[in-house]
Specification:
Blueprint: E1 3-9, H1 21-27, E2 34-40, H2 60-72, E3 76-80, H3 81-86, E4 99-101, H4 106-112, E5 115-118
Length: 119
């Protein structure tokens, strides 16, 4: 049986860093028998921004492509709804497959996990 691991990413994309090392490290979980959920909190919700017509733009392109790859590999990617709303982002602005998670449901998600990674 797969272990459930929740990885929480809080840091947003930075202009000086094309790829976020935390996203790369999270991708390694795909190599082992892990049921992975990636939660984007705070500024990290900006990693999931898709550009017009689903095409990523600017510095966010690499992050959005990484998230799309994780989603396509079966990783659940969730953005905290309140953090997305505070930045003017709805589900339509996010990479396809990224779900919105209400912050009050996060504690239950963490309680059910076998392990939590906090980046």
């Amino acid at each position: 049986m797969a272990r459930q691991v929740v990885a929480i990413l809080r840091r947003g994309p930075a202009a000086w860093c094309v790829r976020d090392p935390a996203l790369d490290a999270t991708a390694y979980a795909l190599a082992v028998d892990v049921d992975l959920v990636l939660v984007l909190r705070g500024d990290a919700v900006e990693h999931a921004v898709a550009g017009p017509s689903g095409r990523e733009t600017s510095v966010l392109a690499s992050s959005a492509a990484d998230l799309r790859g994780l989603v396509e590999s079966g990783v659940r990617v969730q953005a905290i709804a309140e953090d997305a709303a505070a930045r003017g982002l709805g589900v339509a602005a996010l990479v396809d497959g990224v779900e919105l998670l209400e912050v009050d449901r996060l504690a239950g998600c963490l309680a059910e996990a076998d392990a939590v990674l906090n980046w």
